[in-house]
Amino acid sequence: MTVIAEAWTKFAICVALIGVAGPALSYHGDIIARRTGLTRSWVGLLLLATATSLPELLTGVTAVTAVGAPNIAIGDALGSCIFNLAILVFLDALSREGSVFTRMDQGHILTAGFGVILIGFAGASLLLGVNQFWPKFFHIGIYTPVLIALYLLAMRATFGYESRRSAAGADSAPKPDIGLARAIGGYLLAAGIVAAAGVWLPFVGLEISEAMSWRTTFVGTLFVAAATSIPEFVVSMAAMRLGALDMGIANLLGSNLFNMLVLAVDDIAYEPGSLFAAASPTHAVTAFAAVIMSGILIVALIDRPSVRFFGVVGWTSLSLSIVYFLSTYLAYLHGH
Q1: 183 half-sphere exposure, CB direction, 13 A CA radius
Q2: Over the stretch 18-32, which tens digit does the pLDDT of each residue have?
Q3: Using an 8 Å Cβ cutoff, are 27 and 233 in contact?
Q4: How far is residue 321's CA from residue 324's CA, in Å, rounded to a whole number?
Q5: Which of 98, 167, 285, 286 is the most exposed place for a label (fewest CB within 10 A)?
Q6: Residues with Cβ within 8 Å of residue 32, at least 6 apart in sequence
């Protein structure tokens, strides 16, 4: 087997391992929501988003500690954000009940808005970090505690919103046959499979980069980010099929928030210095693309566009697709 074939085989194995746990996460997450009385959106935002974002967390920490590849870590976290938003295009195209943007709960505007704030701040930090603009505490940049504080603020605000919805009787559903303890066990098992595959990804990403002579910025933004976002894709698809669309959407948007927390953890783990100063400023393009895509989603949630071209996708999906492919192409052209 050639070096290229071996690298791609390993990548395929990672994708398969990460993807296989997705339906189980969605299924058991839905049961936890119904057993506890929590809204499906909150379960998607907290439990599913945390579990499906474990590959980004483990990939980022491994990339900066064992591999010494800050571009893989940054590219994975930010690339996963735009990939998560691009998943909305697939959900819209596969929806036979009309546009998903007309069926989403408008409460997702709150999560998407916080996504704009956190991702936009991360993009600005990348541009300023190159010039050593931010002060540091030892090797940790000042943006790290800010990202952590913003993430906690976002979770507190969304928890308050979803608690009020739950108290009003939202997402009421009959209790399932499976008990809560069994559902939690299934959730933890699926999350463990996702985590185990995630730690392998940075090594595979670097192998692909070397075998194909590609820039690590591009590999981190596209291939590793796509692989670590496979759980979000599978979980959201499974949630839509379960009739729990809002749980799937909350999983995608919650994962984007968690990815910004991942960047803060990566910076703490990166001992040579500030992570944002060591990474390529080209990643800021990906960050601002995620901000634009989040803005497009917010507009769609307010405007509720129902027109679909050829009965498949609407202007929202087309706009998200264009921004995604343009940002990926720029990462390939100008990455390090």
Answers
A1: 20
A2: 778 878 888 888 888
A3: no
A4: 5
A5: 167
A6: 38, 43, 47, 180, 183, 184, 187
Fold of 3-334: A middle domain of Talin 1 (1.20.1420)
Range 183-208 burial, b when 16+ CB lie within 10 A, else e:
bbebbeebbebbbbbbbbbbbbbbbb
pLDDT single digits (tens) 103-123: 999 999 999 999 999 999 999
Nearest CA-CA partner of 278 in 140, 151, 120, 180: 140
Residue with tokens 């969605």, as numbered in its chain: 26
CA dist 214 to 87, 169, 203, 222, Å? 25, 52, 14, 11
Could you give the CA distance from residue 34 to residue 239 in angstroms, rounded to a whole number? Answer: 14
Smallest CA-to-CA distance from 66 within 160, 200, 193, 161 is with 200
For residue range 192-251, list pLDDT tens digits in order: 887 777 777 767 777 777 787 776 666 656 777 777 788 888 889 988 988 889 999 999
Q: Is 214 helix (H, G, I), strand (E, B) or coil?
A: coil
In this predicted structure, the answer to whether residue 130 has a pLDDT above a threshold of 70 is: no
DSSP-based three-state secondary structure for 140: strand
Phi-psi region of 95 (alpha: psi -120 to 50; beta: other; left: phi over 0): beta
| pLDDT top residue among 214 and 46 | 46
- Give 56's contacts (C-beta < 8 A, 6+ positions apart): 76, 77, 80, 198, 228, 255, 258, 259, 262
Residues 28 and 181: their CA atoms lie apart, in Å, by: 10
Pairing mode of beta strands 140-141, 136-137: antiparallel
74 or 167: which leads in pLDDT: 74
pTM attached to this predicted model: 0.87
Q: Which amino acid is at 272?
A: P
- Give 207's contacts (C-beta < 8 A, 6+ positions apart): 3, 6, 7, 10
